[in-house]
Amino acid sequence: MSDTMDLSRTDDAKLPSARIGATAPDFVARTTEGSVQLSGYRGRWLVFFSHPADFTPVCTSEFIAFQKQIERFNDLECDLLGLSVDSLYAHLAWVKDIEARFDVRISFPIIEDISMSIARAYGMIHDESDSTASVRSVFFIDPQGVIRAMVHYPLAVGRSVGEILRVLAALQTSDTDNVSTPEGWMPGDRPVLSAPSNMHEADARSTGDGAAWYYTLRGVDQ
């Protein structure tokens, strides 16, 4: 039996919960760009995010910012996928209104999740919540379909698209170079080597100049 959930169904079947290090729960859903399946994004990174409701001020500001940075996401081989519990028709009307009023055409898909099945599986709406509004969740999903990072914001606080791009670049740098990124790291900054796992590695990083053996910036030749 397939683990993919078809949202045209109206039963009470639930998706597995989303967590870091696990495969992102798969689903099929209607969007403003046609039907999509989450696993169809395999091979590229995906930033999957929710917003509380269409035609709201903070969500509008976020969607405009996402769209204006879409080329930077493309440069990082990453797609965008939005979601709210509003209907497809509300999404379409909102997209058209944003274009008419702000001259910005939202080109990435926005999922209709009227049943709240996806929102609940991904923790965007708590099982015992008395509200249908999803929080501002962001899921960073790698090309193998694994959730690598999650960020959740309350309804009243808008996200920084610049920070989302930074986290995406940090994840990719960590994977490519087998390093970690320290606080405030930005693309072009030096990352740090992973902590030593044995005394041999710890001794090798003890340079005698007072530097911390457990905090080693990667050199240009490393």
What does this molecule look like?
With 222 residues, this protein is an alpha/beta fold. The chain is 27% helix and 16% strand. It contains 6 helices and 8 strands, in the order ββββααβαβαββαα. It has a 5-stranded mixed sheet with strand order 6-5-4-7-8. A 3-stranded mixed sheet has the order 1-2-3, with no helix packed on it. It is elongated, with a radius of gyration of 20 Å. It starts with a strand and ends in an 18-residue tail after the last helix. The model is unreliable at 7-12 (pLDDT under 50).
Number of strands: 8
Termini gap: 47 Å
Helix-strand sequence: EEEEHHEHEHEEHH
Please tell me the overall pLDDT.
88
In brief:
The protein is an alpha/beta fold and 222 residues long.
Features:
single chain, 222 residues, alpha/beta, 3-stranded mixed β-sheet, 6 helices
Topology at a glance:
Elements: E1 5-6, E2 27-29, E3 36-37, E4 45-50, H1 57-68, H2 70-75, E5 78-84, H3 88-102, E6 110-112, H4 117-121, E7 136-141, E8 147-153, H5 161-177, H6 199-204
Parallel strand pairs: 1-2, 4-5, 5-6
Antiparallel strand pairs: 2-3, 4-7, 7-8
